[in-house]
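Why does this matter for the project? Reviewers at the last site visit asked to see concrete outputs rather than summary tables. In response, this paragraph embeds two records directly. Each consists of the residue sequence and, immediately after it, the corresponding structure tokens. Nothing has been edited or filtered.
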Amino acid sequence: MKKIISLFASALLMSVLFLSCNAKKSSGKLQVVTTIYPVYDWVENILGEKSSDVEVTLLLDNGVDLHNYQPSADDIVKIINSDVFIYVGGESDEWVDDVLENAVNKNMVVVNLLEEIGDAAKEEEFVEGMQQEDEHEHEDEDEDEHEHHHDEEEAEYDEHVWLSLRNASVLTKSIASALKKVDSKNADVYEANSLAYIEKLSILDKEYSAAVSSAKRKTLLFADRFPFRYMTEDYGLKYYTAFIGCSAETEASFDTVIFLSKKLDELNLPVVLTIEGKSHRIAETVVAGSKNKNQKILSLNSLQASSKKDFTNGKDYLSVMYANLDVLKEALK
């Protein structure tokens, strides 16, 4: 699928390159392009009072998550004409390399989030009871065997870096540095705003640490995809889950459901967790399969399909992470 997306982006490049070479910034403002909402929000906090002087574009602004996003021709034009482009840098962003090779603005500053966090980047992991994505073993049976094994051996990193407050602090600093490079006259403003925002992140990080330290339990059970690997690593939490964070699965196997139900009983957990969304069928089935059948089903917001329209009346990255802390406290009682 990722190869198809990359080819799709390459084809789009051919159709937009001529127009983009003649494109001009309609607003005359500094152009910053981000793929995901958390980064968009970090940028706005760093800009602060200078926000009106910068045009910030959020590409994933229609409810599509990172793993299913395909850039439109208009998206590509915005990227290759931008002054700063910020993206996650994982497998879902394989199309980016082709786009950047055709950048019109040769002075563009590019921020790859996975590269910026360095050794803090985590490979996807399979834990006990997690459902393997076996269907991939049976599709495209005529695919070249060598290429198949090569793909299997490539490390796949967890892309959900924004769900670690500690990563968010590192990345806020990196984004501020990028903005200072392209707009040096406002460097002091960006520095001051980034330090103030990092302090807010640090305060919340300490609240998470205190909550986990005083909690009765140290294990989470997810009946869903699990994009919170970075968060559990930060605070020393153990987890069991139905699927890895980037899984496209929506139906859990009988064995997976039974395993999670038994773990629920074994650990006497009061909560089954899911990510945001309307359907919690797997969680309901896991609860129904337990002895007590009375566990709460609560959701942690992964922010991976968020758009600007979801964030009104003061709601932002920090408020969502505070709400997630409340859910975490309930799950660890």
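We now turn to the second protein, recorded in exactly the same manner.
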Amino acid sequence: MKRTSGLPALLTLMYCIGLCGAWALLYGAADRWWPVSLLLFGPRWMLGLPLLVLLPWAVLRHRLLLIPLGFAAAVLAGPVMGFQVAQEQNGVPSGARIRVLSCNLRVGEVDFEALSRVVREYDVDVVAVQEYIGDRRLTLPEGWQGKRDGQIAVYSRFPLQVGEALKLHRAGHKWKRQTVLPAVIRTPAGPVAFFAVHLPSPRYGLQHLLDRRKLINPEKAGMLEAQTGAREEASMLARAMVDRAVLPVIVAGDFNLPRESYIFRRYWSDMSDASVLLTGYGWTFFESLRGLPVMLAVDRVLAGNGAEARWFRVGPDVDSDHRPVIADVVLTPAG
């Protein structure tokens, strides 16, 4: 084994510091500073490319460097890429269970039959879908009720009453679009306030920022910053609508907010989040940014006000860029 020399050790040190810096920025400045927002919604796995050079170099010539490089690989595969260990639950749930499924239909291109099978196989009680375009329908059990408003729809095996949707302007669209569709679902255990959400995406700002010649053009960051402000306002208004509910609350849909996002942590992190009950990455969104694969966890089921999330799964591929998410919410007995 050779003693570590200056250049390999320096490169390894710089890489470890840079990776830890990226980790800290993700949890401190995502959706607050546009370069970190680009990392938040971009191909984070690219931060591991230096390991393709440094690890073989360390194995062949400087094996002591495998220790810091192993630490760097763990940071990358763990918190930077979003790996989590399921949070422990306190006690055994004693209230009535409601099983919720949410799925973004990718402007109606989803395999409706495959999604209908997921609903049946998981014995789902309530379904929320987003980007519902076209006339195709889910094949649901007899007796289900449903209501569609724009591109958001809610379906339930229990009696359903839908309220007025929150509509907001979005980048790339001339007219306001449905952002939150509220409903009251009358379950056997009592009424529940249900909110199907589709919060704005940063897609247009990210695409505008990327440049064919410069790769990233900081001069075009203004649209991403404007979209970030609009996305925060949408979360603020959506959360205000949720907070007006006096019933147990379930919020399900495409939040377009990874857990590291400042917007998510400010407006939604105090609710019972079903996704933290899963060990793994929990990715629900699979897309590419200029040909580079991107995987994110942005679809969620939240609960509060006397309701608590107790179980969570990411469903199979149904020919959408989003995977369906399935969660159990328990209505905790009063008193």
